[in-house]
Amino acid sequence: DMAGGVRGERLIQDHPDGLHVLRGLKGIGATTHAPGRPPLGAAQLRRVLAAFDEQGATVTYHLAFGMWRKTMQRPKGVFVTGTDTGIGKTLVSAILARAWNADYWKPVQTGVAEEPGDTDTVAHLAQLPPERLHLPAYVLQAPLSPWAAATLEDTIVDATTIVPPATRAPLIVEGAGGLYVPIDDTHMMIDLIARLDMPVVLAARSGLGTINHTLLSLKALQRRGIPVLGVVMSGPPSAGNKEAIERFGGVRVLAEIPPLPRVDAAAVDALAQGIAPLAECLAALYDAETEAD
């Protein structure tokens, strides 16, 4: 999509003779003859130049010029990552999927030997039908990083083959572990995030130590030019930590998830009610970036 327009100008200019006119036209690249009219031969061109010199005519230029700017296409979803493993990414993903009526996709699933995959968990918590769930590109048994699990299982994971599914609804993508969890021999999770070109929702703890962990993750994303839609904090609410993350991280805390006596679909639905619409969050992010530019 392009935004811009075309303007026109009419210029009248005197030339000393026809030869100067011809050179001027060539100088601005006006060398294409009119459609349906063959180019003039040498003899015809000499007669035109002679007539111009005799009549002392002026030349009128009708100039059109345009400027376009490629409009930013808003992404259709977000990538949920965390400051650590076991930070609550799956719960955050379920809440966002419920709030935004989104599809869910976990590109790389590890640890299925010990517990069900996150896709089943999100399906239950967010009450998503099967058509809103997309199968992982890779499923590994060991509860390790994708790279370590693949090495243990003598299989190959290639981050460059991971392609997001085509969806009509917004898409929630959940990563494995944190930003610098290795996917394969040469790619970290942050490399996949950058290639998918989606803004990030960063899951973080609310307690002691979270300021350092969260700001380090935000700095890593900033260095790669990856936009951050916001942070979701889990644990006993801490007004001081929230304020510090928003102030020093330059981000918005989208939600604070308190300790839950029971993690079920009803709890997720209640928390989803407090999440701002996706369109509103994206507008706040990209409008702010446009103003900064």
UniProtKB/TrEMBL annotation:
Look up the domain of life of the source: Bacteria
Please state the gene responsible for encoding this protein.
Answer: bioD
Q: Which HAMAP family match?
A: BioD
- Recorded GO MF terms: dethiobiotin synthase activity
PANTHER family, A to Z: DETHIOBIOTIN SYNTHETASE
Keyword terms: Biotin biosynthesis, Ligase
Family annotation (Pfam families): AAA_26
- Any idea what this protein is called? Dethiobiotin synthase
InterPro entries the UniProt entry points to: DTB_synth_BioD, P-loop_NTPase
**Which species is the source of this protein?**
Achromobacter mucicolens
Instruction: Give, as one word, the top-level EC class.
Output: ligase
Q: Does the keyword Ligase apply?
A: yes
User: Is the keyword ATP-binding in the record?
Assistant: no
The UniProt record lists the EC number as: 6.3.3.3
In the record, biological process GO terms are: biotin biosynthetic process
